[in-house]
Design brief:
Layout: H1 3-8, H2 11-20, H3 22-45, H4 75-79, H5 94-115, H6 121-148, E1 150-151, H7 153-166, H8 177-200, H9 207-220, H10 227-230, H11 232-236, H12 260-265, H13 269-290, E2 296-297
Parallel strand pairs: 1-2
Helix pairs in contact: 3-5, 3-6, 5-6, 6-13, 7-8, 7-9, 8-9
The chain binds zinc ion.
Length: 298
């Protein structure tokens, strides 16, 4: 694209174009990798009841502090070949895989919300921030659950109300869908757990899973779908849509409107992304549950 075209755009359009392009993808990947590094600390320390900030990162074998240049997500692991610089103790490759996974999830959320979402760019960027942190937290909970068979209350108790509050940014059909989803998610797992217990006379699921589901339902609403994508065509009718939304009946194909910004980036992949989004929703619900047969509360 020529510099003249860039110059002719408003500041908001320049921001939007930057965020939906390669710069935005790079930012999402870096952002995700940094948070992946933080969630590694969560996975290690929360089950042990340790502080997240004190002491700073250190080698679990020799106790030597990890310098900032040895603490760069993914890269440091590769450069040091997964070993401590001081004592040479080997670290699990899981540290790097968590950073990669959280980074990859942030890139997926960037595609779903920033590139293919509906609404103002500020809202879509906010949705990227919320959903990338949320998916990273699900990864952390899954691994803590896998390691310890526990989903710590110290995570779910604050996360449930925060998720229900943040649901107002997720374009759910109604404002109350988040809180209803939180209560409904808890009730659903409670019913399943209670039914299983009565039938089999042993515990199948714990209330840790119910709180996890309350967290998920709180953010995604009880339907687990956002208004932003489902009824985009219907809502935009009779409303100023800045040409961004597809017109008329062809909404499923997501044909770009006359806005040159969207024309550049909205593509035939939009249909595939709808399926990817549903798969991601399912994974968000079942991945943590599938990793464990039995979860207690703590
Ligand atoms: Zn060491």
């Amino acid at each position: 694209m020529g510099y003249a075209v860039w110059r002719s755009m408003s500041f908001e359009q320049q921001i939007e174009l930057s965020l939906i392009g390669p710069f935005g993808i790079g930012f999402a990947a870096l952002w995700g990798a940094l948070w992946g590094s933080f969630f590694n600390v969560v996975i290690c320390r929360v089950p042990a009841g340790e502080s997240l900030v004190k002491p700073p990162s250190h080698c679990r074998v020799c106790g030597e502090a990890v310098r900032w240049y040895d603490n760069i997500p993914i890269l440091s692991y590769l450069l040091l070949r997964g070993r401590c610089r001081h004592c040479g103790a080997g670290y699990s490759i899981r540290y790097m895989l968590v950073e990669l996974l959280v980074a990859a999830l942030a890139v997926v959320m960037h595609q779903v919300f920033v590139v293919h979402g509906a609404g103002e760019i500020g809202l879509r960027a906010g949705q990227l921030v919320i959903t990338s942190l949320f998916s990273g937290l699900l990864v952390a909970i899954s691994l803590i659950d896998y390691d310890t068979r526990l989903i710590p209350n110290v995570i779910t108790y604050p996360a449930i109300p925060i998720c229900a509050l943040l649901s107002v940014f997720m374009q759910l059909p109604h404002l109350w869908d988040g809180p209803v989803g939180a209560v409904g998610g808890y009730a659903l797992i409670w019913l399943i757990a209670e039914g299983y217990y009565r039938l089999r006379k042993r515990e199948g699921m714990g209330l840790g899973d119910a709180k996890l589901m309350a967290m998920i339902g709180g953010l995604l609403g009880w339907q687990g779908r956002s208004r932003g994508r489902r009824s985009r065509g219907r809502r935009s009718r009779g409303r100023r849509s800045r040409g961004r939304r597809s017109r008329g009946r062809s909404q499923r194909a997501a044909r770009p409107g006359p806005d040159p910004l969207r024309a550049l980036h909205l593509s035939r992949r939009a249909r595939g992304l709808g399926a990817a989004r549903r798969a991601a929703n399912l994974a968000a619900v079942f991945l943590p549950a599938a990793l464990t047969a039995r979860t207690e509360e703590r």
